[in-house]
Amino acid sequence: MSIPQSFIQELLARADVVDIVGRYVQLKKGGANFMGLCPFHGEKSPSFSVSPAKQFYHCFGCGKNGNAISFLMEHAGMTFIEAVKDLAQQYGLQVPEDDVSPQDRARAAQMREQQATLTSVLEKAGMAYIKHLRGSEKAIAYFKGRGLSGEIAKTFGLGYAPEGWRSLASVFPDYNDPLLVESGLVITGEPGEENAQGEAKRYDRFRDRVMFPIRNVKGECIGFGGRVLGDDKPKYLNSPETPVFSKGRELYGLFEARTALREHGYALVTEGYMDVVALAQLGFANAVATLGTACTADHVQKLFRFTDSVVFSFDGDGAGRRAARKALDAALPFATDVRTVKFLFLPAEHDPDSYIREHGQEGFAAYVGKAVPLSKFMLEAAAEGCDLDTAEGRAHMASNARPLWSLLPDGALKRQLLAEIADKVLIDIRDLMQLWQPASAGHKSGSKGSYKNNSAPRAKTGGSSQNTPSNSYQAPAPEEFSGYPEDLHYETDYAGFEPHFPPPAAMERSYTPRSGNAGSRAPRRAAGRLLPASREDRVLRLLLTEPQTWDRLSSEEHVLLSALPAPHGPLFTWLESQLHEHGPLPWAALREGLRGHPNEQHAIAQISQIPEGIEGDWAEIRRILDQLLRLGRQEEMKELAARAATDPQALQRYRELAASLKTMGENGA
What we know:
It contains 25 helices and 18 strands. It is globular. By secondary structure, the chain is α+β, with helices and mostly antiparallel strands. The protein is 44% helix and 11% strand. α14 (374-383) packs across α15. Residues 265-347 form the Toprim domain.
């Protein structure tokens, strides 16, 4: 679905960022702006500013910034399309769908109406369950016995479905309403089970169970989980699949955990509703749970919208190890170099709820700190059942490791694991790659290594191309990033979804070789034209030709690139919206989406100046991003220095940035 930029601008012109943010953050007037506690990181004194004049928010503590659309994407975990539709609905606008047939448009409208109706039905049932809880001593006793307070029950909307086959008949005037069946609240009997009046039998799905409402990232009730109070089976019962609920895509507690995920820095994935609620009661509100199903790729992708680190918690028994193995398969494609995935195995006699009650918050936090990294667990999974003291066992491990390793995205982690696998199976890394990828490795037998490393230096030869493939290219090391504008701040006027920064003269620089090294740093040419040598253009070229690389960047790098002056910042912002809307697209599709973009011609020029056969060099891009991060942090430190003497939070942030810069320097960034 393509949404015209003109509509985005009209939408943002009507939307009030103060109103949108104010629904999630308590704001107070402070001069020309509104101030509040930042929802993206934990703080005790307000550093989160919302400007009604500029329709822009900015946190002086963590640097998060943007407009109404980006706030819904960052805080509520919506995709670009979801955020636009949500805002449009709030302000009575119809999202243009010019590329959709009238039939498809009618079906989509019917689906949206149905979904809205079903969530309202579920919300009404949820309120009834809350009311029934107040009158049920045994349900209250159960929750109190699990150590839950009334406040945490209110936060999660806990309730009780009373005994009786048709208690919802007192909630809904028409118990025969088809919506009750479509929403999963009521079950109809099979043919032949009609009552005396010839009507199909209908009865409540949830009876005599404590109820856990399942909410989507917008906070709408989309289903329920119910735990039996007696000995009936099943112990836990979920809503069935409906137009608004899919257990393979939803996570219990994610809506409630949004802020805590950023405060704790990671998501803790558990296996039960009570684990989530009990952990939130005891200081770990960053917990979520799968809904009676194995962890899926959709679950993992949704979590990485909110955090760069995920810890899966499982029982230490065989069932827990099998569940962890499925989670590993789901997580591997998303394990980029800037993300962390770990696996926590609790003692067999414990679940997260019981462990934290026995060992306390500090004990549980310490145990989480010992979680197994994805790399180690992947090697353990590959070696399971293999006797590494025999050639047969090592060959078996190599065979097991191949599909797992192939799921990883390209990057430093993937290359390191290749070396570790080769070491464990006692095979040279080049031979292992030739076994795994014979077609691509065979013709490179004369090269130093079969596994291509774009960052490794390549010597030029005048002979056969076996040693130097024609599509290999080593870009020159980037020149010093001099002249970066000192006045680049986040307090910028967002006229539309794409920020339009006035380009400082310092950013309009051309390629200039270092003195004393001009001979080896001659500008590259294509079709007689000089290729721009700016760092921003190099990053832009890679992301336009390999947009999936965006997922390898950290959240801080996303913000940094999007905040660059035009043309780069608006293009990076646009590219991110395309990824949210469509996923990675080839350049041909991106080219069509760029039509009418203010910086369309700059993007086209960058692609046209890439010589045939030249590959993007991720190692070079990584160095550029590190330099941009360093300079961005230095700029923030300048701003913080003016407030550090009187603002303890500013001082603390200044020290954190200073420490991070020191670490970057030690690592050669």
